[in-house]
Amino acid sequence: MIAGVCGGAGGPQFGGRQRTAERARAGAAAALRCRVLRLADRAVSWIRSSDLQILTHAGTVFTADSRVSAITGEAADDRTDDGPDDEGDDSWDDGWDDESDDVPDDQQADSDVIVEKGVETVHTLRIERLRPSDSGRYECQINTEPKMSLFFNLTVEDSAAAAAEVEVRALGGRVVRGVAGRAAALACEARYVPPAPPAPTALPPNLPPLRIHWRHAGHTVDTQSGEGGVSLESERWAGGARSRLTLGALARRHAGRWRCVVGAHSATLTLQVLPAADSDMEAMQRDQAVARVSSDAISLPLQSHPLLPLLLGMLLALHLCAPT
Question: Are 30 and 153 found together in one domain?
């Protein structure tokens, strides 16, 4: 997710084309590259989101982990040398943040302008000898006021994960309906599943945990972005994970497609936001229907009741036996 893309007229901003998802195997190296325009006298920091650890600042490493290094240089088209070392492995996602179907047209136009303006520098966070625990989100931050942040997702797969596939599915249906101003929840689940035959049918042990991210309108949902009413509940177990995203006060901007993403796998849900007036009208129609049914039941002809002859006979007998 991009928070505060522009730092004012002529100020720093993130480049319009960023590779925000990286996948690598355990033991290999990964490089997260953050493209910045017109940095001038500002500085770039890399922060690990899981524990808010500052890894690098202005090219200087601030962690005792010897596997971490920082590189700063002028921009170059590095699309061809970011992929995996194994040629012909088309199972690797190229990771480029190209979701044009999720990005509004006005934002795409802005990105085109961003690429053409100013001097662009690349600030690289490199991690050697990757471990599965290195998987997660990393923040590229420019020390403007307010701070500007761009988030990157790193997925580290070990040999066990390579022998399993990931299945992501929506919970509660792919279409969710909500009312403007009220809350709505989206939920999904991810599981490891054995690969198709002739591969082994049993899951290998020690699979890395699955981490679920939500995307909407081309951005990764960030519960720390300051938008009120957005909460995320996650549950993980061996071989699976479940995520529930709650939107506290629905607005028109929340309508549309939401993607539940785990690495290169995802499930799509559609959120429909109904105006509050339409919801109130539906409630009134239901109340009127219930009232009509109750009224019809009360106004049934008495002679149609099966116990009516018996009741009349008992009343007549009491009347005849009464003392005069």
Answer: yes
